From TrEMBL:
SMART domains: PAS. This is PAS domain-containing protein. GO terms for biological process: regulation of DNA-templated transcription. InterPro entries: PAS, PAS-assoc_C, PAS-like_dom_sf, PAS_4, PAS_fold. It comes from the Bacteria. PROSITE patterns: PAC, PAS. CDD domains: PAS. Residues 1-35 form the PAS domain. It holds the Pfam family PAS_4. It comes from Streptomyces lonarensis. Gene3D superfamilies: PAS domain. Residues 70-122 form the PAC domain.
Amino acid sequence: MDAALFAVDRDGRVTHWNQEAERLLGWSAREALGRRGLGGWVVRETDAADVQDRLLAVTGDTPAGGSPRQVQEFPFVTKDGSRLLVRAQTAAVRDAAGRVAGAYCAFSDVHAQLDLERRIALSEALLAGSAWSVLLVDADLRTVALNEAATRALAVSPVEMLGEPLAEFLGSGLPELEGALEHALAGEPPAEPVELWVTLHEDGSVEDAHGESRGGLPGGRRRCWLSGFLPLGSPLATEPSPLGVAWVFRDVTLERRQSREATRRRFRDGQLNRAARAAADCADPMDAAVVHLDFALAGFAEHALLDLVPSARPGARAARTPAAPPPPAAPGAG
């Protein structure tokens, strides 16, 4: 963000006026240089005395006095008559002998400044206390910052990740992740959050004295992350200049595994229901058993073997369901 700047001498006469001041206020340097006072053109006449006193306060020549560098807000007026509230930094200007010769005022639109401050505050909040994991990579896809939630999700410390490529920590699923990051760098991030299944090289577990793994991420190293990608550009640059990508993600591994298991159970229940109905239509018990297996095992097994139990006598049953009740106790026992 380029700062607009002008300077005045101790009498309030404009001595410097840069192009950004011309862009914001509409007055060219030719129109501004040499004018004494700001009233009637840069500020309203009713505000002129107050603005000039505060502007020249850094010189020590006004009753207001003050430090040699101040930050304050001024109600300026553009050439077309629009009001423009600016945030300005004023400081004393000294001549070659070191004497105070006037004051300069570097200013910008207060709304643009507030927007920049909000962006900075948002970045700090995301990296400090966000419940979502946030990881920033540069244009070379190396980690430059991550928050505490991301360190837990990746089972690493910030020191281990900073400056390192993601390949040092992720196995399968890395090409898909890097592809999404590269699209975001090119200004074409995924329009919707995407689910990425990746495998971590480490899950944070340690071996105890018996050689068993303790701790680590619940569910192991295979993770599912619901991810969004935000390209980062410099708000200070006049032309697009990619700084990197913010990868915002949340671990949904347990939810997705539970959903898959629930879907699997529903499919199996439906197949068993269809198997029972199909088997009931078969006259031959062997055909019924085969049809039942064809339906019941679909999606779970490709082949099934059915062993026949030889009967000791005609009509003998190998099993009974429900189980036969126990014989009654003999009378007079006990």
